[in-house]
Each structure stands twice: as structure tokens, then as C-alpha cells.
Amino acid sequence: MLEEMKDLDLLSTCCAEDKFHDECGVFGIFLNESEDDCEAARTTFYGLYALQHRGQESAGIAVSNGHEIQLHKGMGLITEVIKPDHIKKLKGRLSIGHVRYSTTGMSNVVNTQPLVFHYLNGMLALAHNGNLVNTVELRKRLAAYGSVFQTTSDTEVVANLLARYSQDNKIEDALARCIMDAKGAFALLIMTEDRLVGVRDPMGIRPLCLGELNGNYILASESAALDTVGATLIRDVNPGEIVVIDQDGLHSRQVIDSPRRAHCIFEYIYFARPDSTIDQVNVYQARREMGRQLARECNIDADMVISVPDSGTSSALGYAEEAGLPFEEGLMKNRYVGRTFI
To answer: Which positions fall inside the Glutamine amidotransferase type-2 domain (predicted)?
Structure first.
């Protein structure tokens, strides 16, 4: 009975108290050379600004100068957390950033990301979009080995796994073992002092894409962030793939070949920006086609089509087009407030 009570307490702590971010935004860049020490941080800031719709609770940027990792994060929008003076202090050629959205429970600075850790081989920064479904099991196992947790996030679980597995392995080898242990939907960015690493869950539920900017590589949750900073979309990170970016360039390793893909339909219906392309499908075109298909299946007697802005507008246009009905604006959204769902 006592053991069962402990399990319930652990479940309550790591799940009920903070059921963590099913949807967040991540952005990372590796600059080969730069005359501006703050360029990586500044580019990450604008990348996160483009991903603000993915999380409005907290934001943060971590930067490596090749020797150590610096971090600034806090509660609020990216423009509220990261000011010009902060960017001036975040000097380095590697950077990752995060905007956070948690579904339920506590929202506090302890769980803001990126998370930065010291481990046997140096420093490590993590930014995570997703949710592990076996967090309780992994926490119990790690706690039994002596791990101490400072947050209620499953990102810290990944950090502890990485630290444990990297004692005798390279970071990408340790990450490969983590993927085997972790169950759920996730896109991870990991930064060491001299490497940027991205990984996507084996079924590709969470989005992650690779871009290029003046010969430098970028990883981001959505291609819209690449457009914002002037980068070009190369491709999506494959499900179960680890992408390593270092001074020698880009390296790829396919850890798990999933028998099927299971992309999150909510990205196309609602969450992603309409100007993003995820897994070679443009979000705007997908929503518009959904509206057309809805009209084919449910063509009702109506005078006009009115959308619930903004995510529903593309689908409403498709419905109106297929049904031969006029599209009109009937509901107005206040453009000066945050995203209403979040």
C-alpha cells in the first residue's frame, strides 16, 4: 500500500501538477563564422518570435561560445522575456531557444526552457516540444539510481538519461539510447559547447525541420520560422532521425525506422501557422482542402460561410469555394491579445 501511495504521489507530481507541453516551439542555429558575437542569439530571438503562437507562457534562449553555455529565460512572451540588453550578453555561435505552452497545471519559472545542466563531459542545454507517456516509469528508475529532479518536466528526465548514457559514449550515441527508452511524441534540440543536435520521435508526431542560412544550419519546429530569419527550408527531420551539426558540417543518423508515420493532425487543423510546410504539406492548403472535403460531405442549405478566425478561415474559404457560397466576415478577433486557445 505504501509503495502504491508513492507511485500515486510521483504520478501527481510529474503529470497532474504539470501535464507539460504537448505543443511548444523550438529553434536552434549553428553559425560557422560570425563577426557579430550576438548574431546567433538575435537570430534565435526572431525565430522564436515567429513561433510565438506555439507557446505564450514562457520563453528562453541559451547560447554557447565554445567553452560554456549562457542562458536567459523567464515567464511571458519572447518580447517580454528577452530584451536587447539580454541579447548583447548572449554571445556565441551556437544557440537554441524555446517558447512554452503547458496544457494544465502549474506554470512557473522552474519549468521554463531551455534547461541547462552540468554533466560529466561539460554542459548541456535542452529544448523540448512534446510529451513522454512513460515519464513516471523513467523517473522512478532514475531516482532509484540517485537522480535528483528540480522540475516537474519530462525534459529533465531526458537530461538525466543523457547524462547517464553519455558517461562512456558520444552525445549522439547517448541520445540514441534515450530514444529507445522514451515513449511518446517529441522533438528535441540539444546543445553542447560545440554541437547542435536535433531528434524527432520515431513516428514523426511532432514537427521538426532543417534549414540553411548563408551556409549555416538551423533547426526549427516550423518552416515559418525559417522564412522569418531569411533561411531556406532543406527538409523535414525524419522520424527517428538524429541530426548533428558541428564545425565539420551536418551529420545524420537514422536510429529507428518506424513502420508507419503518425503526424499530429492538430498541427494542420489548428496549431501550426498557415504559412508553414510540415512534412511536405503546406498547412494553408491542407486546411483549405479540409474545408472543400467538408462541403462535399456536409453540403447544407446556407446563405454564407463565416469562419471563426484565424485558424478556421482557410477551411471556411475552402468550404465556400466548393459549396458555391459567399464567404463573409462575421466574427472579429482582437488582434492585440494573445492566442485565445492558449
So the answer is: 24-248
Closest to 62 in 3D by CA, of 122, 107, 124, 120: 124
Tell me the average pLDDT across 288-295.
Answer: 98
Report CA-CA distances (Å) from 149 to 142, 146, 158, 179, 301: 10, 10, 11, 20, 58
Of the ranges 18-27, 139-148, 163-172, which one carries the lowest mean pLDDT score?
18-27
Q: Contact at 8 Å (CB) between 133 and 183? A: yes
> What proportion of the chain, given as a percentage, has pLDDT over 70?
91
Q: How many CB atoms lie within 10 A of CB 335?
A: 7
Angle at alpha carbon of residue 24, lines to 22 and 30, rounded to 5° = 135
User: Of 109, 102, 101, which Cα lies nearest the Cα of 151?
Assistant: 109
Angle between helices 154-165 and 135-144 (to 10 degrees): 50
What is the pTM (predicted TM-score) of this model? 0.89
Identify the DSSP state of 267.
Answer: I
Q: Which stretches within the chain are classed as H helix?
A: 2-11, 39-50, 78-81, 84-89, 135-144, 154-165, 171-181, 223-228, 265-266, 283-297, 311-323
DSSP state of 230: T
Q: Find cell 554557447 and name the residue.
A: 64
